[in-house]
User: Fold this.
Amino acid sequence: MLGGVVAGAPLGAQELDAATETTLTPETMRWLPAGGGAEMAVLMGDPSQEAEFAYRLRLPDGFLSPPHIHPVDEHVTVLSGTLLVGWGEGLDEASMTVFPAGSYLHIPAGRAASMKASGATSVQVHGTGPFRTIPVGEGAGGG
Assistant:
């Protein structure tokens, strides 16, 4: 979804062992810049690896992620604020679907989408990597 995961490098990875339980409180999450004023905290795993991962994003009001795809399924839970999602390879903010806090989205691998935050918005993303963001038009080899 964001530039911090595009290159495959985990941002703020907690150096966690997936074989043991993971417990984090808001005070122990390590937030790092993820571009465009967004912040990211990896909660579990390494999104760039072939394994389960979970991370959170804090998006400022108006944050926009242009049309992009991911090579793996993306599971998104809106924790606070409102996430607007546009489906397809074009960017039409007027036709975006509104997902308020409490919403869940499953976005299949290869499904083009764009996202915008309405108000300060927090989301949690989980899935199985390797996860990366590929801007529409760059194809599977881009990003």
Notes: The longest strand covers residues 113-128. Residues 3-14 have pLDDT under 50 and may be disordered. The radius of gyration is 14 Å. The chain is about 5% helix and 45% strand.
